[in-house]
Amino acid sequence: MDEKQLIAARAAQELKNGNVVNLGIGIPTKVVDYLPPDVTIHLHSENGILGLGPSPTEEEIDPDLVNAGKLPVTIVEGSSFFDSPSSFAMIRGKHVDVAVLGVLQVDQYGRIANWAIPGKNILGVGGAMDLLEGAKKVIVTMLHTTRSGESKIVESLSYPITSQRRVDMIITELAVFKVDKEGLLLMEMADGCTIEDVKKHTLAPFRLSSQLTSNVR
User: Fold this and answer.
1) pLDDT digit string (tens) for 111-159?
2) Is the pLDDT of residue 87 over 70?
3) CB 185, CB 206: distance < 8 Å
4) What b/e readout covers 38-69, taking b as 16+ CB neighbours within 10 angstroms?
5) What does the mean pLDDT of the chain come to?
6) What PROSITE patterns does the annotation carry (predicted)?
7) CB 120 within 8 A of CB 160
8) What is the 3-state secondary structure (H, E, C) of 33-46?
9) Which one, out of 4, 77, 128, 142, has a CA that is 20 to 30 A from the CA of 188?
10) Would you name the residues annotated as active-site residues?
């Protein structure tokens, strides 16, 4: 598996049987492909679907069946369709157990920026703000650095903030952080990764868990 697939596979371990889950654009969309065989979840999409299935093969693609990111999807038996206001009412009513989001940056307190880059056209905020406020648990999945090698985990956000709500967990190809009232807590490191590697690529301060593990992926 490549780095993005490894991140998605680790995030899939956080989902519990029966969870209602919303998967954001990018790495989060891959999570459904790595669910443990004994876990069944109900995938929600902001454009009005509950009951998404695994990513479609070329033969399964239906151009009329897409998620909120306009990517082709499959559906499972018992899935349902509804309008956008009903979909967002589900989110705002706290009926989504877990949201998995891709982000541009995370700060030292676990607050994220994921909807706008200054100077670039904005397609729309989508459901990110609503999911941060409404989902019971929020997991960030992202590459640890940008293409130019700059850390995405920063002391202070340089992009517009999405919400004041802190996320609960950050999963990258290098590490897994838990977010608590004091900030970031390093829980796991990828195979072959050292604490110095994580520090080198992380601009935000973080603490080490007493249960810190490695070789987890």
Assistant:
1) 999 988 777 776 667 789 999 999 999 999 999 999 999 999 999 999 9
2) yes
3) yes
4) eeebbbbbbbbbbbbeeeeeeeeeeeeeebbb
5) 93
6) COA_TRANSF_2
7) no
8) HHCCCCCCCEEEEC
9) 128
10) 46
User: Who's near 18: CB < 8 A, 6+ residues apart?
Assistant: 40, 41, 42
Q: How far is CA 165 from CA 65, 113, 197, in A?
A: 32, 11, 28
Return d(Cα 5, Cα 33) in angstroms, integer: 9
Whether residue 77 is predicted with pLDDT greater than 70 in this model: the reply is yes
pLDDT of residue 119: 75
CA 45 to chain CA centroid, Å, is 13
pTM: 0.92
Percent helix, strand, coil in the chain, to 5, is 20, 30, 50
Decide which of 3.40.1080.10, 3.30.70.141, 3.40.640.10, 3.40.50.720 is the CATH code for 3-213: 3.40.1080.10
**Adjacent-strand bridge partners of 106:** 112, 153
Task: Report, in angstroms and rounded to the nearest whole number, the Rg of the chain calculated over CA atoms.
Answer: 17
